[in-house]
Amino acid sequence: MREYRFERPGTVTEAVRRSGSDTAYLAGGTTLVDLMKLEVMTPGRVLDINRLPLRGLDATGGGLRIGALERMTDVAADPRVRLGYPMLSQALELSASGQLRNMASIGGNLLQRTRCGYFRDVSMPCNKRQPGSGCPAIRGENRMHAVLGTSDSCVATHPSDLAVALAALDARVQLQGRDGVRTVNLCDFYLLPADTPHLEHDLRPGELVTGVIVPRLDWAQRSIYLKIRDRQSYEFALSSAAVAIRREGDTIVEARVAVGGMGTRPWRLPAVERALAGRPATSNTYAAAATATVDGTRPLRHNAFKPELMQRTLIRALLELEQTR
Amino acid sequence: MTVSPIGREIDRVDGPLKVTGSAPYAADYRPEGLVYAYLVQATVGRGTVRGMDVSRAEAAPGVIAVFTPFHPLPLKSPSGESGENYSALQDTAVRFRGQIIGLVVADTFERARDAAALVSADYTVTPSRTSLADAGPGVPQGLVQKLAPGVSSIDAALASSPVTITTSVSQHAHHHIAMEPHATTAVWVDDQLTVYCGAQSPQRAAATIAARLGVEPAKVRLICRYTGGGFGQRSPVWNEALLCAAAARALRRPVKLVLSREQVFTAIGHRAAVRQTIRLGAEADGRLRALSHDSDGELPAAGGWQMMPGRDTSAVAYRTPNIRIDQRLVTLDTPPTWSMRAPAEAPGMFALETAMDELAVRTGVDPVELRLRNYATEDPVEGHPFSSKYLDECYRVGAERFGWSRRTALPRSQTDGDWLIGMGMASALYPAWRQPASARARFRDDGRVAVASATSDVGTGAFTMLAVVGADELGLPVSSIAAEVGDSALPPGGVGAYGSSVTTSTVPAVQAACRAAVKALVQSAVDNPRSPFAGLAPATVRYRQGRIEANGRSVDFRTLLRTMGVPHVEAVSTSAPDKSASQYKFHCFGAHFCEVRVHRLTGEPRVNRFTSVFDVGRVVNAKAARGQLTGAIIWGIGHALLEADPIEPDGRFAAASMADYLVPVHADTPEIDVHWLDRPDPHISEFGARGLGEIGLVSSAAAIGNAVFNATGIRVHDLPITIDKLL
Amino acid sequence: MRLNVTVNGEPRQAEDVWPGESLLYVLRERLGLPGSKNACEQGECGSCTVYLDGTPVCACLVAAGQAEGREVRTVEGLAEGEALDRVQQSFVDAGAVQCGFCTPGLVVAAHDLLARVPEPTDPEIREALAGNLCRCTGYEKILDAVRLAARR
C-alpha cells in the first residue's frame, strides 16, 4: 500500500474543505482499503469521515432519508425499510457477507468500484484506471461484464445491488461540496462510460455523499429484489432485478423495474414498466414485457447469454412477487 | 478395561488450540529482528527481462534490500525433482506470467508491498503458448493398452460394438485454495536454518531447501506443526520459500514472506487444465466391449505435475476385453501445475462416469445396474485381483439410503415448484498406497506417551490418528498420548501427506513403535538397579494398560520411570508393505448418489442432497473420516459447478482471486449422508486401513452432472456447469 | 503514529503504526495476537473476523487509523479463563475443525450469530456464515457445531 496521511476532519465542512485531487474519503473501507492494497487507488491523504454526523434513518413525512454513514446491516434490518421497501432490504442482505455489511456504509456502497478483474489488476491496461490505456475486457474474459451502457472504452459492470433497488425507487443522492449542498437523481448520478470511463459519478471536486432520499412509494411494500448468481451466496450478481408492482385487482396499474449485473450503471427499464402498466398480471404479460429488456444490449463473446438471462430474471421476479402477498 | 478408540468418534487432539487461535502457523512466528519480504512477479507471458529499475523501490521508506535476476540470491538448480524446473532469479528468462522476478525486503509488510509495486521491468516478449485447444494433441506419455485376442485395434473393437458412445469433456485450471496462503518464516542461527513453512512432507521439504541453498541437510530444520491446508500444493517446495530462506541468509536476520492470495494463484502450482475423450463400445445390454480414454493435459514449460487422468481410473474401473488409455501432455507457457486432491482421478472419473451415464441413457439400463453388469473383480489390464472390493455393496447400500428407486429415468420429469429435480449417480475409485513409514513411541516420566512421526497434519487428522492408534496399542486413554508431527527433526522416515497414504502407511509404524517401546520399557525395568523389577527375566514382566506387572507388583510407567531416574524410554520403528502385496491391486471404492435442482427459468444448478457410501478399509477415527469425506464431496460441488480459471492468450489467469475463483460457501452445502462399510483390507496391512482423504472428491462432480442431465435433459461437457449453459 | 485500542478488554498501545496498516496486521504483527488469520486480505474469506465495538468485521479491511480508541475482541478473547466458550467447545465436539485456519474467524462469526439469534434456523446459519470460507470440512460439521452451541 502506498504511504498516505491519515486525517480525521471534525465536521463535514472541514472534510469538504480538506478534500482535494489527491484525497479519498474513508467510510467503511471495504472498497477503499481493498483497492489501496492493490494500488488501484493511491491517495496521498485519506480523510476518515466515520465520526462525522452522517448517520440516521429518518422516515418522517413519508419516504426515507438514509444518512450516508449508516451501515448496510442496520439499514437492511430497520423495520421501516424491511416492511415499507422490501426490495431495499433484500438488495442489502444479498450483498456481500455479514462482516462486510457490518462495515460498509450506504454512501460507500453507492460509490463502490467495479469488480472487473482488469480494473483490479494494475499490471493490465484499463481505461477506467488509466485513461487511454485500453480495455482488455472487450476481447478478454468478459462473462461477468455489462451488456447495457457499454462503450468501446469500457464494459465494466456496476457492482452495487443497493443502487439497483434505489434506481427503481427514484432515489436521490444528497451531496455537500465547497459550494454548498445539492441533490441529484440517483440515475443521473451515475455516468455512462462513453469515452471517459474514469468519470463514474456526477461528483464535483471535494463533494461528499451525505445521504440518500427514497421518495415515498406506498406500493413499494410489494417489491422484490431477485439476485441470480453462480454461487448460492456471497457473490456479485450475474443478473438481478428490482421490481415493485401496484395492482388493482388483477390489473397492473404501475410498475418499477430496474436490473443489475447487466449495465455499466444500475439500469432502470421504463419500457418494461410501460409494457406492464394497464395489463393483467399474468405470465403472458410478464413474458411480453420482458422482451422490452433487450433493446440496446451489446453482448460480448462470453456474455451473450445475459440478455436472455435478464428476461428470465425479470419474469421470475414478477412471478415471485405475485406470490408475496 | 479400556475400550479401544479405533473407529469411534474421537475429538481432534489439536482442536482446543485451533479454536482459541493458539496453534501457530508459519506466518504466526515473530522472531526478534524480523523483516518482511514481498514478491515481484513478471507481467508478461514469455520472454526475457531486459532490465529492471529498482531505484524507486530502494529509495522507498523502510526498504532493506531488493533482489532481482541482476542482483540475485544464490540458489542451486533443481535436480531430478518434478515441479518447477528452474530456480528463481538465477536467469532473466520469463517462462510464464507471474514468475518471480524480484524480492523486496523491508521493515514492515506494507512497506515491502509498496516498494515491490515501485519496481519496474523491461521485457523482450515472445508469443506465449497458452491454449490447450489450439495447441493440438500433445506428446503421448503413458499409453496403456490391452486388446482381446484377434482384435487389431481399439478402433476396430469400438467399430464392431453394437452401441458406441463418444464423450468429450474439458476443464480449466483449478486452484487448491488452501485457506492459509503460502508463508515462510526463515531464521538462521549461525549456519543452522529453521524454516517455519507449511509442508505436506517436512523431511522432504527440508532436504529440498538444503539442496537448493547448498547446505548440509542436517543444517535445515522445517517446522510445520500447524498447516492451513495442503491438498497437494504443499508437497513440493516452491521458489518463494527458497528465496525467503536465501534472503534471511544474505541479510543475516529473520525474514517472513507471506504471499498475497493473488500471488498464490501463479507462484504456486495449479491443477492442469485437461481435455478428455471417452469412447465406449457396448452390447445392447450395456456390457462393455471396449473403452478408450484419450487426454490432453497442460504441462507447463516451467515444469509441473503430469496430468495422467486415465491410468488409475479408466484402466481400473470396469471389466472390458479391450481398453486403451492414451495420455498426452501439451507444453504450454503457463504457471506451474501441481497435483491437487485426487489430482488425475477427479477429472478422469468425471469423464468416464459422464460417458457411463450417457451409455445408460442410450441403452435404457439403470445406471446402477449398468455398473453392476460391468463390475470388475480384477484389474482389467494386468489381471491382478483387488485386495478387497465391496463396491457392489456400496451401490446397494447407497441406493437404499438415497432412495434411488424413486428416480425417473426421463429427464425433466420431476419438479418442485419452479425447480426441475434430477438424480444422478457415479462410482468412485482411488488407488490405495502404502509407503514405508517410521514412527517413534516414547514413554515419558510425566505419565504420557509421545507418539511421533515426521508426517504432516494439514487438517487431515494425523495428530489424532497417532493418538488413537497409540492409545489403542498401549491400552491407554487417547488423552495420555502426546502426538507429534510436522517437524523434520523427528526420526527419519515420516511419509508425506499425499496420495491418501498417511494413515495407511503410518498406522503399522505406530503399532510397531509402540510394541518396541513396551519391549524397551520392560527391558529397562529389569536392567535398571533402582527398578522394583530389577533382575527379573524380561519374559516374566508384562506391560498392561500403562502398567508394568510382575510377581504380583504393578507399577504405572510414570512411577517406574521416576523411580529409575529415567526421563523417558523410547523406540523408533519402521514398517513397510509385505512383498506379497505386489500380487494385488489396491484401490478404494465408493458410490455417490446426488439430487440437484435447476431453476426452470434462471437455470441455477444447486445440489439438494448427497448420499455417498465408501469402501475404504478400516477407519481409525469416525469423526475425522466423516470430515475428510464430506469435505471432499463439497469439492465435487466446486469441480462440477463453480471452479475454473481460464487462461488468457498472454498467459494471464483470468480468475486469480478469491472473488473470481469461486469455491463453495456454507449456503451451497446440501444435506450430506456419508457412510462407509467397515471392512478392513486383509492384504494392505495387519490393521487394514486404505486411506480416504481424496476418494470423496472422485466422481462427485460426475454424479452432479448426471443429476443435472436428469433434471434438464442438458448434458454439459465443458466444466463448470453454470447458469449460462442451462438456459 | 501511536494507536490506542482496547483489545480483549485491555487497553493496548502500538507504537510506530503506519495508518495504512490494517487492524489485522496490527493485531498479528504488533500486538502479538496471531489468532486472527490472514487468508485473502480482501474481505472474501472471513478468516480475520474480529469484533470491532461489538460488531464482527473483517480486520483485513479496517485501516489501523479507523480503530483508534475503539474496542476489539478477537478469538483469543472469547474464552473465560481455561474454559472454552460454548462456540469453541462445540466446534471441537462437533468435528468442525480440520486445518483450523478458517476456524478463528468462524468461531467469532458464529459467536456473534448466537448472540443476535439464540436459536437460528439452518438457512440463517448458512447465510450468516456465508462470508467465512472453509476448504476442509465441507461446512456440514460447522453447521452442527453452531446448532450444538445454540443448545448449550
TrEMBL record, chain A:
Keyword Cytoplasm: no
Protein name per the record: Xanthine dehydrogenase YagS FAD-binding subunit
UniProt-listed InterPro entries: CO_DH_flav_C, CO_DH_flav_C_dom_sf, Diverse_Substr_Oxidored, FAD-bd_PCMH, FAD-bd_PCMH-like_sf, FAD-bd_PCMH_sub1, FAD-bd_PCMH_sub2, Mopterin_DH_FAD-bd
Stored Gene3D superfamilies: 3.30.465.10, CO dehydrogenase flavoprotein, C-terminal domain, Uridine Diphospho-n-acetylenolpyruvylglucosamine Reductase, domain 2
GO MF entries: xanthine dehydrogenase activity
Domain of life: Bacteria
Region forming the signal peptide: none
Enzyme class: oxidoreductase
Pfam families xref list: CO_deh_flav_C, FAD_binding_5
Keyword field: Oxidoreductase
SMART domains: CO_deh_flav_C
Domain FAD-binding PCMH-type: residue ranges: 1-219
PANTHER family (UniProt xref): OXIDOREDUCTASE, XANTHINE DEHYDROGENASE SUBUNIT C-RELATED
Enzyme Commission number(s) of this protein: 1.17.1.4
From TrEMBL, chain B:
A single MF term (Gene Ontology): xanthine dehydrogenase activity
InterPro entries linked: Ald_Oxase/Xan_DH_a/b, Ald_Oxase/Xan_DH_a/b_sf, Ald_Oxase/xanthine_DH-like, AldOxase/xan_DH_MoCoBD1, AldOxase/xan_DH_MoCoBD2, AldOxase/xan_DH_Mopterin-bd_sf
Domain named Aldehyde oxidase/xanthine dehydrogenase a/b hammerhead: residues: 20-127
Transmembrane segments: none
Lipid metabolism among keywords: no
Keywords, comma-separated and alphabetical: Molybdenum, Oxidoreductase
Enzyme Commission number(s) of this protein: 1.17.1.4
Cross-referenced PANTHER family: ALDEHYDE OXIDASE 1-RELATED (PTHR11908:SF132), XANTHINE DEHYDROGENASE (PTHR11908)
Protein name: Xanthine dehydrogenase YagR molybdenum-binding subunit
Lineage per the UniProt record: Bacteria, Bacillati, Actinomycetota, Actinomycetes, Pseudonocardiales
Automatic annotation (TrEMBL), chain C:
GO molecular function: 2 iron, 2 sulfur cluster binding; metal ion binding; oxidoreductase activity
Segments forming a coiled coil: none
Matches recorded under CDD domains: fer2 (cd00207)
A Pfam cross-reference name: Fer2_2
Alphabetical list of InterPro entries matching this protein: 2Fe-2S-bd, 2Fe-2S-bd_dom_sf, 2Fe-2S_ferredoxin-like_sf, 2Fe-2S_ferredoxin-type, 2Fe2S_fd_BS, Beta-grasp_dom_sf, Diverse_Oxidoreductases
PROSITE patterns, A to Z: 2FE2S_FER_1, 2FE2S_FER_2
Protein keywords: 2Fe-2S, Iron, Iron-sulfur, Metal-binding, Oxidoreductase
Residue ranges of every copy of the 2Fe-2S ferredoxin-type domain listed in the record: 1-78
Protein name per Swiss-Prot or TrEMBL: 2Fe-2S ferredoxin-type domain-containing protein
Natural source organism: Kutzneria albida DSM 43870
